[in-house]
Write a structure and sequence with these properties.
Layout lengths: L9 H22 L6 H8 L9 H19 L7 H11 L29 H12 L5 H15 L6 H15 L4 E2 L3 H17 L3 H10 L1 E2 L8
Antiparallel strand pairs: 1-2
Length: about 220
């Protein structure tokens, strides 16, 4: 079992979100292989037009902004199936066939022959409840959620971003930091994620994320 690396107060957690949100959104774009830079992402989040960025990339960035706002607005609400769907509804808005509802057809994943099954709502609800109610640390729970949601591909689009956002709600609410895969670790993350798709063994992926992607206030300290 992975213990929490960070034990932050609510004030410290919100301070960390303020400092890391833009980077997290940028890294979510990189997870999707979107051709945007961090300065472009930050400029868009600041409300300034960036003419060289595609409209669908701008939409994806603003969708993540809205998902983070909703995360903070609901920070004290319990994790639920409805919340999971709401996050996807914000993140995949105007990107997918449908957003905010479970997919009803097959999808493929680039680089692997693994084909996730069409999700059954009762099964998804039960699996989510089992993870959320497990007697484990916030870090362990968040990584379990991320791995489960990413491989499950429960929605038509935005599954990694949706799963990371739900994981971050657990971390921020629990004062356990923020999950962000930075450029430095993106290639290794993709290798481990592909291996996880193929084998269904998430242990190495979760260990890597625990060591390299959960950050606290080691850099950003309150005065």
């Amino acid at each position: 079992m992975l213990a929490d690396k960070n034990r932050l107060t609510r004030e410290q957690s919100l301070f960390l979100v303020k400092k890391k949100r833009d980077e997290n959104i940028y890294c979510c774009m990189k997870m999707e292989n979107r051709a945007v830079t961090f300065p472009q992402t930050k400029t868009i989040l600041d409300g300034v037009n960036v003419p060289d960025v595609r409209l669908d990339d701008i939409q994806a960035i603003l969708n993540m902004r809205d998902a983070w706002k909703y995360l903070l607005d609901t920070i004290d609400e319990p994790v639920s199936f409805e919340l999971f769907c709401k996050f996807n509804g914000l993140i995949a808005r105007n990107e997918a066939l449908k957003w905010g509802t479970l997919r009803t057809g097959n999808v493929g994943i680039s680089g692997t022959e693994y084909m996730p099954p069409i999700p059954d709502e009762n099964t998804v609800r039960a699996e989510l409840d089992r993870i959320v109610n497990a007697d484990v640390s916030a870090a362990q729970k968040a990584l379990d959620i991320f791995a489960w949601g990413t491989r499950g591909q429960f929605f038509w689009d935005g599954n990694k971003r949706t799963s990371m956002t739900l994981a971050n709600k657990i971390l921020v609410a629990g004062g356990a930091g923020i999950l962000t895969v930075t450029d430095k670790h993106m290639e290794r993350f993709n290798e481990l994620l592909l291996s996880y798709y193929n084998t269904a063994d998430a242990s190495e992926l979760k260990e890597f994320l625990y060591e390299n992607a959960i950050v606290g206030l080691e850099i950003y300290k309150l005065s």
